[in-house]
Write a structure and sequence with these properties.
alpha/beta, Rossmann fold, seven-stranded parallel beta sheet, 16% strand, binds oxalic acid
Length: 309
């Protein structure tokens, strides 16, 4: 009985090695070619094309190697009742919060403007921005959104968060529901998306909703590219309503060569690097969950397939 690693190559090698260190007694296959289908009990994957899952008659478990599971849940032949687990890694949560803070502070302190001035040989001071004009709104207060909200609150920013039922995080104003969504956006000078991608959140950030942001607002996406209608964001930046954006996730990764984000002067784009989970932890959680599945015990970080996260 074995674990199959079915991941993009930059993750597949290190995760296979970590699995071998974690459980030398369990055979691990990196890639589908050599793996005997009857032996595979668990698959670690990012996404699963149609036809992959039915190949494995003894599969007990599908493990994401990431926090988000939208690509896995989209597999059309994911058997009903097949458990799916995701990674919950406090180190990754902190790393993503650091990324968000870095991009937000660069914007809030005008460091991009000063970098441009430096290249022009220009010494010019701009009035500082009062913190009260830097209200932060975080969409999604799961583990990652909560880490982001807490970190902004800890350095004195006014912070609000939008979630299904409110989280009661000290220093973070809760908003819920459709009304709360609009109300929070209208008061967010910096908007951070840390939502899971579900049918309800796909395309949530579009011309209509982003127009609710105050003039001069800045948008940061560490959720999924599909939350955002990128053309609408660009139109609002070009029209001067939004100041700019930092995007770490895209509907198509990498974006097409002619995607306007490559050259847009007000968009900072990074290649989904806000923070990866620890590969050791991915391996440990997968092995532990395989052992639990074999014994019929409760799994760690099992996804609610109906909720989509
Ligand atoms: C993700 C991750 O879900 O990197 O994108 O964990």
């Amino acid at each position: 009985m074995a674990i199959l690693v079915h991941l993009p190559s930059f993750m597949a090698g290190p995760i296979t090695a970590a699995l071998q260190r974690t459980a030398p007694d369990i055979p691990v296959w990196n890639g589908r070619e050599a793996a005997p289908p009857e032996a595979v009990e668990a698959i670690i994957a990012w996404g699963l094309k149609p036809g992959v899952l039915p190949t494995y008659p003894n599969l007990r478990l599908v493990c994401a190697a990431t926090a988000g599971v939208d690509k896995l849940l989209a597999a059309p032949d994911l058997p009903e009742g097949m458990p799916v687990t995701r990674i919950v890694d406090p180190g990754q949560q902190t790393g993503i919060a650091h990324y968000v803070l870095a991009t937000a502070l660069r914007h809030a302190r005008g460091l991009g403007t000063y970098a441009e001035q430096q290249r022009r040989g220009e010494w010019k001071r701009h009035p500082g921005r009062d913190l009260s004009r830097c209200r932060v709104g975080v969409l999604g207060l799961g583990e990652i959104g909560s880490a982001v909200a807490r970190m902004f609150a800890a350095i004195g920013y006014p912070v609000a968060g939008w979630s299904r039922s409110g989280k009661g995080i000290p220093g973070v104003t809760d908003y819920t529901g459709d009304e709360g969504f609009a109300a929070m956006l209208s008061k967010s000078d910096i908007l951070v998306c840390a939502l899971p991608l579900t049918s309800q959140t796909n395309g949530l950030l579009n011309r209509q909703t982003l127009s609710l942001l105050p003039a001069g607002a800045f948008f940061i996406n560490v959720g999924r590219g599909e939350h955002l209608v990128e053309a609408d964001l660009i139109a609002l930046i070009d029209a001067g309503h939004l100041a700019g954006a930092a995007l770490d996730v895209f509907a198509k990764e990498p974006p097409a060569a002619d995607d306007p984000i490559w050259n847009h002067p007000r968009i900072e784009a990074t290649p989904h690097i806000a923070a990866d989970p620890s590969y050791e932890l991915v391996a440990q959680q997968c092995v532990e969950n395989l052992r639990r599945a074999r014994d019929g015990r409760e799994l760690l970080n099992q996804v609610d397939r109906n909720a989509g996260y």
